[in-house]
Amino acid sequence: MGNTGSPRVPNKPPPRFSGYHSAPNFEICHVCNRNIERWDNLRQLIFWGFKFCKMHEVDGTPRCSGCYRFQTEGQMEYVNLGDGRKLCLNCYSIAILDPSKCNRLIEKMREFYKELNLEVDKDIPILLVDKDFMDKRQITNWSRNGDNIQVQKAKKTLTKAKVSSILLLFGMPDVIMGAILAHEMMHAWLILKGCKKLDRKVCEGICEVMAHLWLEWFCNEGKNNLDAYATEQAEFTKILKIIHAYKMTTRVDKIYGDGFREAQRAVSTSNLHKTLQHIVRHKTLPPRIHSNSTC
């Protein structure tokens, strides 16, 4: 990685993360190497220390769909995935691009759920598809905003609910695709437990908790996941994990942001299994416990 694209973790996180940060300092654009003379034309990807002109958001400059950095002058051309998306070489080196890599990720996901003592139906089809297929495919029910992954509506049988399939958009870095798969596997788990009419904020919140737990597990408890990587790949994966986790914890919307924080609070207070048991039985999060303090 070059100096303009190398990951950097600030000593203190910024007050919020919305993808960009405006700063009134005189800077040089890392994309075109020109001076950014007006503060309102400056944009920055905080965790990468990557500064760029606002115009590059709309002028067709190639942008990585994994880490969101722009291609800079003199940098090797980004890899075209053939469906409108591009990947920088860092993201490409750890991306899930074929069924064999996807199968290994699925096995890691089952290992992750098993360590949490959660049983996952092994018969759920998990398919790796391209963006064109994802766009054209009519999905009866989707649970995540964006087009990264979708789950078909559960089919009713005489004995139990059944999840039709999970579709994964190929070409994402493994740590991020894993977080999305962890999220959707919890949707499937809830459906198979009979939670088909769960409040959306409760449902998405606990699924985001699972995604957040995966990020920590993949880079810590699942350390052997990174052992096969070169040092540069391992460090890059860790910074992607930090960025993705920070975006989750600071998200401002009600369903995913507030939902995650409320579910995370419940898990921290009770633990994961008690929280899930309460959701299955009562279709809500456990009541918030207020400490009684006396002066």
TrEMBL record:
It comes from the Eukaryota. This is Protein DA1-like domain-containing protein. One of its GO terms (molecular function) is ubiquitin binding. Residues 151-281 form the Protein DA1-like domain.
